[in-house]
Task: structure prediction
Amino acid sequence: MSQSVKKLDQLTVTRFIAALSVMLFHGGRYIGILAYFPMLTAGPVAVSYFYVLSGFVMALAYYRPGTRFDFRSYGLARFSRIYPVYILAFVLTCIYYIDLMAKIKSDKVLANVFLYQAWIPEFAESFNIAAWSLSVEVFFYVLFPFLLIFAMRRSVKGLIWASLGFWVFSQIVHSILKVRFMPESAAWLAYYPLFHLNSFLLGAAGGIWYVSNAPQLKVNQSANRFLLLLSLGVILLLLSLRELTTSFPTSFSLDNGLLAPFFLIIVLSLAFDTTRLAQGLSHPWLVLLGDASYALYILHIPFRWMMEKYLARFAIPYETMYLAYIPVSIAICILVFKYIEVPARDWLRKNSHMLLFIFLDVLLIYIMTRLSFVFRLGDEIVSYRRTQNFALRTGLVIFFLSFLVFQFYKTSSWRSLAWAVLTGTAALTGLMYFAWIKGWVEGFPRPIILMIAVFVYSSIYLSRFLVPFLQPSVRLNIKGNSG
Result:
């Protein structure tokens, strides 16, 4: 990442403010004093800010005219940045829905695992209802390198005007579809990735302009502070009017980038700020909150659902539970950032070659589980469809977690593999039995679970020898030593 990005710590805490707004929107906007301050709970609008900031920061990090774009490093950086914590949130959501996991259709599961749910109306809010925005962000990640290559061949002024033109076009098309042609699909239009692209493009164009002009610009700090306060005032006024008046126009939506130009002004104003405001916003504790904002954003829904579910037996008033949930979630997400997000990101970037083997192992677990059911049940497998689905979905998670716990990807040891498979099999056996007595599945297939264990161990063990392009550093350590 460029030095310019590192110096803009004053922007980092704004991510936390936006994430907190999304958190308060989901379950807290009608509680106590929050009901009278809609600007604090404008979650969907805060998502637009995320997209503007994302485009801005990515432009700062990657806009280097005259240099060749490194697709491999870029893809690895983006994947390691969002996917580990995203999949953690997905697993926690599945645990919340554990009694339904055998019945949920596979296409819905796959849409969430591979982050394309926002493109499909009925899947946009499936599982973790905050995850649709990550699906949109992945679309931006895929598009960004090509946009950047295009941008390097154009003038900065032309890019600014093009992004503004697209913003106007996007707002008009969204309004027409919402009011005249697809009023019944207004909710889905709010999630559709193409209608958030305007925010990202404005942010990216602003970032390119900043990189190109910031070194030689002398900014009047008083005028800069005025633009910051003016933009904040316009945003807060429009949010308040939308919630507190019945005559607010509904033809245009504030949730699909309508406020993006004002967000960009805020980002640029803070980026140019050299006063005590920037120094205060760059305090290490505030920067830490901003760094943990992604974990807070993607984990707050499963956290709240689980708290509601497991505290319901104690008859705790919802408002009391929610007020406790906010600081607890923030504290947990700081721990997730420090001890899961950062270590996972750093390990993946240093061991990118292991992604192939992780994918291979996940695929083998899935295939071996299915083969176990086919070999044991044959034509009767139709009668045990829910049992198979449950074993497939929970087995993938259990065995993979066991590999991590026993550090299989660090040691490449047959002993760590054996312990991981034994532990995973024991956990899967207990969970399948629990699902059977609860009536979630049709039966408790003990012979099949044993077959799964044998097949998973054998296939992964052999894969380390039979795949011809394996690197020596990841071949299985027959002696069981660390390596």
Confidence is low (pLDDT under 50) at residues 1-6, 478-483.
